[in-house]
Amino acid sequence: MSGAAANPLAGQEMPAAARQEPPALTLISPLDGLWDQLETVEPASDDLLARLRYGFELPPEQDRRIDAERKWFVEHPDYLDRVFTRAQRYLPHITAELLRRDLPLELALLPIVESAYDPFAYSHGRAAGLWQMIPGTATRFGLKQNWWYDGRRDVVESTRAALDYLEYLYEFNEGDWLRAVASYNSGEGNVRRAVRRNRAAGKPDDFWNLRVPKETAAYVPRLLALVEIVKDPERFDITLPHVADEPQFAVTDVGSQIDLALAAELAGVDVDTVYTYNPGYNRWSTDPAGPHKLVLPVEAVATFESALAEVPASELVRWKRHKVRSGEAISVIANKYNTTVSALRSANNLRSNTIRAGQYLMIPVATKPLSAYSKSADVRLAQKQNRQRADNRIDHVVRSGESFWSIGQKYGVSTRQLSAWNGMAPGDPLPVGRKLVVWTDRDVVAESPRLSPTTALGNTTRKVRYTVRNGDSLYVIARKFRVGIDQIARWNNIDKNKILRPGTRLTMYVDVTRQSS
Q: Which of 252, 267, 442, 486 could form a disulfide with 416 if both were Cys (CB 3.0 to 4.6 A apart)?
């Protein structure tokens, strides 16, 4: 097996998770036979959009807000082309789930309104993924979020959770789909209060007569405008791209942690493809504690299944035997090997964080250099640190007792510069052993506030616009979005020492994989 590291621990006792035999693969083919349940379908078409329009069931609506949203889409056909082309990978699965649940097929267009079918989309409200779920709602509907994995970006799991939520909202809104969709955007409490206000005043309680937030007032019409366009694109002189009416991926359950680079090798695809189909994974492997499912292109499944059968369960991740040194903390070891304390404790059956010098720990490590994991958090940091600047680069390893201030003093650079060069904030903890990049020209960052920040950022960074609220400060906003105070100030060309006024619009560049709770 080319590229796979030999097991350095032959004859050693493996952690329990590594000794598991991988179970048989479970393949999910989304559309098989599901169209048969619809009475009105275009049977000869192989275009999913053509078949969708025959399954639309919500009654047509007339409102000037729909007209305004439709006008924007008609004037931007390139946007629709990009979005539906991007949707090809995910739309067949979402359509299949709607068919299984007997839900309106119009909801298949909702991720366009939410995220433009971008699984790495991230909003100012801390919503992530195709369905733009916020952390609290995601937890409420069973989506796991941690250092390794964010279920809000997992296409299969987030779709399950989003449809569970929409079904709940439909019941909550007494069988009214427009109010349910409005509730998905603004929260069931806001819509329920608007309904109660209208009923108390003797007014109609349908969506069009509710007083809802401005964003929600446009949200439902935007979905209905898309429905009109998909239903009859020729009427609006629009040509929509062909979206194949066939499964794009299969879901496999490996049964234990697997290195994503190894998974790519076994499937015969590149690592970037694995991350594109599995955007929920933040790191170099699946979460040690699960889920252990992989989403793979349908054409790669047979190759993966055959190759996986030849790999011993103990080699799905590589294990290293580490001897604990005097004074070495488990958190330092976890950081060194790009893993978590909980993963080390689980792998070594530790009941606490206490370890002793001379003790051996089994460490799961990546089979390839971290640079091979194209969309992991570590690669994005490396892209930032390796951005070429105007002067000499120095690599500094943090020692005990050091801080950003003391290191900055040593090299003649500011705390703000030093933290920004390393993707951190001045107030972030600085663990011993962390490698920092230092550039000796202190004017490089300060003189470049108008350079596009995206030139140094990875594929999972998104531009977020945020409106300052009462009680906000740069510190509060930086903590909320896990960015640096100096970064916000630099991106917006503002003085970080001045008070922010409510209503001020800020631009930020947020790494969505750092937003998992």
A: 486
